[in-house]
Design a protein that fits this description.
The protein is mainly alpha-helical. The protein contains 16 helices and four strands. 51% of the residues lie in helices and 3% in strands. The N terminus is likely disordered.
């Protein structure tokens, strides 16, 4: 069996019972993955046919007038920063939770589009093994990472700038969570002969970006963030370290998850107090849970089970899902403040819910996930979903249910 087959059959459910191998206790786990794949298959293949028609669009297609970087540098602006009505032309001022619609967003949109295309094509490749999906994905990957005319520089020095204050900030690193499914796509396409001569160059871009993330002051600043930004730093660093087989960085992320993220962000009831204090407590709680669960998924292997890791007082990933689940099932029961924006757009089919349902064999969580929106259209919702193609990740969920 080829590498591509091993990865993709697990996701597609073709040989699920072999890969999740089969004490009877694991049949339900395998069943959830298989059922989820069947539920999503039709829409994946439909979306993939549309993706085959799309040409690459990278950061170089939209020069940013206010950027301090070159045409190859990703640029974005702080979401909650606005012109000062009392000082027109002066430094922007903050309105927490209120997105400024006049901000430059072209690079962010291009990256999300890129992530959606690669995630869709990789999912279709898992389901069918058709090389046409790998071939088209390679065109987009080359444009972003290896073509000197159109590539994006492997750094993020000009993200979430603030007019009149900062040309870039460490907080902007969160914008590249949308490269996670690109990195995962490269792992999956690595089994294709089309990628034999391309893989080193593509992974080389992520090696350079990973080096920047772990050495630049912006990376250090983001790593030390106390809320979802710190979680997302670990999540994407872990993802890129998996792709580049950087075990030292993966172990650093495991240590940070167990000694910093879990004790520093999760209350004893499984909530995230720093997110509950925000002006969008519901959306931020969902977002941080998705990122926490992804950390558990990415950092677990045969020797490390972060799904089952517990602090001395019992705090763990399962408890975090248990806290938020009643409010995913019935948002009207949410006992905290409503979000100042996008309250009506959440929840959707949160990746944390499907992955936790599979890992912890929870039929209620799985049933609720099935009933939620799997194809959100709202731009802000899409921006805050680190994972939109769950079948790409099913084979990373442990095959046994040891406690």
């Amino acid at each position: 069996m080829t590498q591509r087959s091993r990865v993709c059959c697990a996701a597609a459910g073709f040989i699920t019972l072999v890969l999740f191998a089969v004490p009877a206790a694991n049949a339900q786990l395998a069943g959830f993955a298989s059922e989820a794949t069947k539920l999503l298959k039709k829409s994946i293949l439909k979306d993939a046919e549309q993706a085959l028609k799309l040409e690459p669009i990278t950061v170089t297609a939209s020069p940013a007038e206010r950027s301090g970087g070159s045409i190859h540098d990703f640029y974005s602006e702080g979401d909650y920063w606005w012109p000062d009505t009392e000082n027109p032309g002066g430094p922007y001022v903050q309105r927490d939770g209120m997105t400024n619609p006049a901000n430059f967003t072209a690079h962010r949109r291009a990256m999300i589009r890129f992530s959606q295309i690669i995630g869709t094509l990789a999912s279709a490749y898992c389901l069918t093994g058709r090389e046409i999906y790998a071939r088209h994905a390679l065109r987009h990957l080359r444009a972003w990472f290896t073509d000197p005319e159109t590539l994006m520089n492997p750094s993020l020095q000009f993200a979430q700038a603030i007019e009149g204050r900062f040309t870039g900030r460490g907080i902007g690193i969160i914008d590249t969570i949308h490269l996670m499914e690109v990195a995962r796509g490269i792992e999956i396409f690595a089994g294709s002969s089309l990628f034999t001569n391309e893989l080193n160059a593509l992974t080389g871009w992520f090696r350079r970006y990973l080096q920047w993330l772990t050495t630049h002051p912006y990376g250090e600043e983001e790593k030390n963030a106390k809320n979802n930004h710190g979680t997302c730093w670990v999540m994407q660093v872990a993802c890129f370290a998996r792709l580049t087989k950087n075990e030292a960085v993966l172990q650093m992320c495991r240590d940070r998850f167990t000694t910093v993220l879990m004790p520093g962000q999760m209350a004893t009831d499984g909530s995230f107090p720093l997110e509950l204090k925000r002006t969008k407590p519901y959306g931020y709680s969902l977002f941080n849970l998705d990122a926490m669960v992804m950390c558990g998924l990415l950092l677990s292997d045969q020797s490390h089970d972060l799904w089952r890791f517990k602090l001395l007082d019992g705090r763990n990933l399962e408890r975090a899902v248990k806290f938020i689940y009643p409010y995913i099932k019935d948002k009207n029961s949410w006992p905290y403040a409503k979000d100042v924006m996008y309250w009506n757009d959440w929840p959707v089919a949160q990746p944390a819910l499907i992955f936790a349902a599979i890992r912890f064999q929870n039929a209620r969580w799985f049933s609720t996930w099935k009933s939620l929106e799997h194809h959100p259209q709202h731009e802000e919702v899409i921006r805050n979903l680190p994972v939109r193609h769950p079948i790409l990740w099913f084979d990373l969920i442990p095959r046994s249910d040891s406690n």
